[in-house]
Amino acid sequence: MEEQLSLLELVLNASFTVQAVMLILLAASVTSWYMIAQRVLYYRQSLGDMHGFEEQFWSGIDLAELYREGNQRVAEGDIILGMESIFRAGFKEFSRLAKQSDMDAEAVVEGARRAMRVATLREEERLEKNLPFLASVGSTSPYIGLFGTVWGIMHSFRGLANATQATLATVAPGISEALVATAMGLFAAIPAVMAYNRFAARVDMFENRYETFVDEFSSILYRQAYALRGRTREH
What we know:
The chain is an all-alpha fold. 87% of the residues lie in helices and 0% in strands. It has one domain. It contains 7 helices and no strands. The Tol-Pal system is composed of five core proteins: the inner membrane proteins TolA, TolQ and TolR, the periplasmic protein TolB and the outer membrane protein Pal. They form a network linking the inner and outer membranes and the peptidoglycan layer.
């Protein structure tokens, strides 16, 4: 209890500049922890949705039926994201272009691939949300804390110049409060850096899965497009 009280006293007795640095670091730490929790929940839900959609997609269900099921959920107010959103963008564009008899199979599938690439970019933006902030907190917090420490030590030595007797007890409180700023900088930076590295790896995993799905789905669309154009020529 005494250690907690002494730490609180150091913060309260610090100079205005050092207190401002501590407040900035505290705000950055609280915000980064909120974003970390939000990203963890988002990635967990996205991973579950992706596995559920892949299982349904590769179960042999008719793609048009799968698309209609998605339409029904959208009509009920659901928001479709992730891999299913990419599928819906590609299938919608494929269905639209396939009705144009003057387009060959290659052009139809390439149009669907463009639509899926755009949808993939949107999903990547959602996955990377808040990561730049975590990177900024991780890279700048130690320097902000170091600034507070340097300022606090300068303030302490200025007070020492006016003292009649220079002792460790004279400068220790000022140096201690200054070092608290460095500790807070590290406290804000370390979780942000660890979370950023973890989330960046998770984003890479999602992006690779999305790209693989686009290639696999494009192969299916190629077969359907050539079969459709073949039936059109027969008629």
